[in-house]
Structures are given as C-alpha cells and as structure tokens.
Amino acid sequence: MDLRERVGKALKQAMKDKDQSRLATLRLINAAIKDQEIAQRGTEDATPLGDADIMAILAKMTKQRNESVRAYEEGGRLDLAERERAEIKVIEEFLPRQLDEAEIAEAIDRAIADVGASSIRDMGKIMGKLKERHAGQMDFGAVGGQVKARLG
User: Fewest CB within a 10 Å sphere: which of 25, 139, 140, 152?
Assistant: First the structure.
C-alpha cells in the first residue's frame, strides 16, 4: 500500500472514529498533497506524486510545526504548542523512523566514503547521497552542519 492510500485509509478511519483533531490533520496532509499536484500540472514533469514526493511534503509539514512549537512556547502559548505536537504525531505516523545521532553520523561517514569526498566542494554530492538513501529520516538542515564539520 502506497503512502497516499495509507493517508486515505487513516482519514476514513478517523471519520468513523469521530476523532476530530486527527481528522483535521489528515485533511491538512491531503490538501498539501493535492496542492503539490496542482502546482505540478503546468510543468513538464506532471506525473503523479510518488511516495518520495509525499514524504518530502510530510517532512516539510513536520519541520513547520516544530518551528511553530518553538514560537508558541517562547510566546507562552502552551495550548497551541500542544496542538502542534499532536499534529506532528499524526504526520510522523506516515514517515519512516527518524535516525538517532549515532545512525546519522554513520550515514554521513558512509556517504563521504561512497562519494570519495575530500573537501567542502563535495558537500552537494554528499547531501544528494544522504537524501537519496535517507529521505524523511533526518533533518537535512541540521545534517548539513555536521557534514561541513567533518569535511572542514
């Protein structure tokens, strides 16, 4: 079952269970997927979104919500921060398991070895390799700094 089907199935189940907060989040996921498809219609590569594309959308949604949680906590709006955390939990159900620090370090080392990187100029190749192998499993913004530190 592909990711789109899993989201659809979860949406129907949330409707049956009358779980309003879960239902709202699943509808947001569906809307984000449809928005991306609509945006691609006018382009040359107007193919249906695959699992990797949907994972990228979900990862972006998770990142946005994590930023919102930080902002709400700094502003003293813990109720809103808690709601964002609940949305993150629902979204993460559809993402692969996040790698821990040791696994990320190992993945970086393996990508550097596979690419044969020797300087900071090879960073793009390394990041490409990591995104290819570990889409949705790590925060590539944070990983970029770790790759720079290893190469620098």
Answer: 152
- Please indicate, yes or no, whether residues 125 and 144 belong to a single structural domain of this protein: yes
- The pTM assigned to this predicted structure is 0.74
> Cβ atoms within 10 A of the Cβ of 39, count?
10
Question: Are 88 and 65 within 8 A, CB to CB?
Answer: yes
Tell me the residue range of the domain where 44 lies: 3-92
Q: Report d(CA 86, CA 91) in Å as an integer.
A: 9
Question: What CATH number did the domain enclosing 114 receive?
Answer: 1.10.10.410
pLDDT digits (tens, 9 = 90+) for 52-93: 888 889 988 998 999 999 999 999 999 999 999 999 999 999
User: Which tokens in the block code for residue 152?
Assistant: 């620098």
Spatial distance between the Cα atoms of 123 and 139, rounded to a whole number of angstroms:
16
The helix/strand count (H/E) of the chain reads as 7, 0
